[in-house]
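Discussion board: Methods & Data

I've been asked by a reviewer to show the raw model output for two of the constructs in my manuscript, not just the figures. I'm not sure how much to include, so I'm pasting the format here to get opinions. Each protein appears as its amino acid sequence followed by a line of discrete structure tokens. Is this the kind of thing reviewers expect to see in a supplement, or should I convert it first? Here is construct A:
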Amino acid sequence: ADCAILIIAAGTGEFEAGISKDGQTREHALLAFTLGVRQLIVAVNKMDTTKWSEDRFNEIVKETSNFIKKVGYNPKAVAFVPISGWHGDNMLEDSANMPWYKGWSRETKAGAVKGKTLLDAIDAIEPPSRP
């Protein structure tokens, strides 16, 4: 795979369970890196259950950045996108429910890449050079 999309539940308790020592979120990030997937997108889902909380999103970005760095990913090269899959927010079009969200930015070999939605993040994945 050229890229992995790590879906993280923003709900109270759900995120914490996922990144706990034996949590599946942590396990999936490690598995992707171990299998050679070097590009990562983090979608913070269920933002509707947090009442579209900027603080909750920022807390999750901070905690997730810490653990994906330990796995081997560079958090500055990862797009973090707050979404609600249930309502479709920030999936294909930017969401009016999160006016505080100004978009994601990530570093690439060619320079900074920016976008707002999950689709933008997927479109910004760099195809690796193949032998």
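Construct B, same format:
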Amino acid sequence: MLRFWKGIAPVGSFLLVVACSPLQALPQFSLLTGNRCINCHVNVQGGGARNDLGWYAMESVGVLQFDDLGLSALRPVLSTNTFLDDRLTVGLDFRLQSARSLRDTSDDRRLFPMQGAFYAAYRPFDWMQLEGTYNLGRRVYAYAGQQSWSGSVAVQPSLDYPQLRVGFFQPSIGYRFDDHTMLVRRIPAGSQDYLFAPNWAEWGAELNYYRFEWLTATLGVSSLSSLAGATLTDATGAERPLLGEPSKPALIGRLLLSPRLFRERLTLNIGSSTLQQGDFSLWNVFGGLGYADVAALTLETMHQQTTGVRTITATSAELMLHPAEPLYVYVRGEYGETLANGVSMRQEQYLIGAQIFVLPFVELRPEYRIIDLPLYRLNRWTVQLHVFY
């Protein structure tokens, strides 16, 4: 009994600190390394806190090291991300971006913060984990579904059994990318609003099974009440809620096969997911092919239908090359279509970019994108500074 309370005691403090902006995982990195998301993150689908392996994988990746800049004093400070006998894992994620507005023809360039997030995970026992994220910034968001926090409790007696995760977190659909501009999470053309906004979270429960290295399966239920403010236009031209009953449970299913072939030099992904609630139906088919430390190809197709009102389809394909340890370059093409009230609206996007790790845990991400809409075409370049831990 005493051991039980020793394990539980830090939990209260943990919840107060976390209170409940995820550092997103990259499926491209998973394909390049042959590791599943759970190998480097505390969450099965990636995102949120990195575990010790995820932290160690980036600990020395950089064009320069801190010693090269006379900052060797930082080494002891940045020597680990786990504490309390490896039961507590902490981290942060800050992004600063320089960009021109997509909705304005002005040449003015703005420098603005994109994200300021803290995250943590704590294991009071080997079979229980508490994890949470908290985003700095405004408390009233522009898009339905955006949240300032997420948190969950996961229970798993051993790897032989499924993991039960309960809490307020993003439902497991498709790949978990870290780019919120991708059409597979937006409404192509038209308003170009989000179908699923950044930091979207819902109350729900999921069973995750990943006993075998080549299999990850998820089955769950979730409220969609965070999307209560989302709307669409029906056939009469009237605006109506996206969901008739947002609090009604939605069913979630996700399956990912990830075998490693040819002496584990080649990693293959084949996956599908679904989210079903009333007349709202979502299907994602996704996959990829990665050659270890050389190149990764990722693809995802999304199909969302609100019966009799609107149908959205979008496809994204990206090729990432890894020419040097601190450098990744990539090109991406996307196509999306929104069919509503008998009118079809199409959008294409093209992007070329790079991830340059100038120091360990410090990334520069320059990107040039073209957005092709029926009435006009935009082109913009952006530069993002990303500091993470």
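Answer (T.O., handling editor elsewhere):
This is acceptable in a supplement if you add a one-line summary per construct. For B, something like: Confidence is low (pLDDT under 50) at residues 1-24.
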